[in-house]
Write a structure and sequence with these properties.
By secondary structure, this protein is α/β, with parallel strands linked by helices. It has two domains: 81 residues, Winged helix-like DNA-binding domain superfamily/Winged helix DNA-binding domain (Arc Repressor Mutant, subunit A), CATH 1.10.10.10; 78 residues, Rossmann fold (3-Layer(aba) Sandwich). 49% of the residues lie in helices and 15% in strands. It is built from six helices and six strands. The chain has a four-stranded parallel sheet, with helices on one face. The two termini are 36 Å apart.
């Protein structure tokens, strides 16, 4: 078995919590019980995890899954690999957003309203500043219903985080905004 992101989740859960059942491990790691069983068997074979008896009472069987030193090392390597991959993904998204914002600016749009998560609004504002774009985000709303009654003349376009513009229009939540004033971020 190749060490995967799910393997990392299991190793991380074992490293952070005292886990005594596979069900606890499945709940904590967010992986199905069957997958946890398969991953644990593999980790036990590789010597990355061991099972210890932690109850002294002979009438009760109690086990705890523990990372071995080899398991801690494997978890660390996986963590580095996943962090690097996530940073690359983040950089790719930033580049894609920058290209989209440059295209928006080139089309003559300067005043925008953003509809979407606050964290993305902040990312967009940072990209606008970093790239000296002539775009001003004049307002931000997390939900479409917050835009009802907003004067469409006060902005050039409303940039929607949602990539399915037709679905948003069919929801009927933006009756005051003309379709030509709506633009998908993606």
């Amino acid at each position: 078995m190749k060490l995967s992101e799910k393997t990392f989740q299991v190793l991380d859960a074992l490293d952070r919590q005292e886990i005594s059942t596979q069900r606890q491990l499945a709940d904590y790691s967010g992986i199905s019980l069957g997958q946890v069983n398969y991953i644990l068997k593999s980790l036990l074979k590789k010597g990355l995890v061991k099972v210890d008896n932690f109850r002294k009472n002979p009438d009760k069987i109690g086990y705890v899954y523990l990372l071995t030193p080899k398991g801690i090392e494997a978890k660390s390597r996986l963590a580095v690999r996943f962090v690097i991959r996530k940073i690359r993904e983040y950089d790719e998204i930033r580049e894609r957003l920058k290209e989209r914002l440059v295209a928006i600016e080139r089309s003559g749009i300067t005043r925008v309203v953003f509809l979407g998560p606050t964290i993305i609004k902040e990312l967009i504002n940072n990209l606008i500043k970093e790239n000296n774009l002539n775009i001003q985000m004049i307002d931000h709303y997390r939900e479409y219903k917050e835009l009802k009654g907003f004067n469409p003349g006060s902005f050039d376009v409303a940039i929607l985080f949602d990539d399915d513009l037709e679905r948003v229009l069919n929801m009927g939540e933006l009756p005051d905004i003309p379709k030509e004033k709506l633009l998908s971020l993606w």
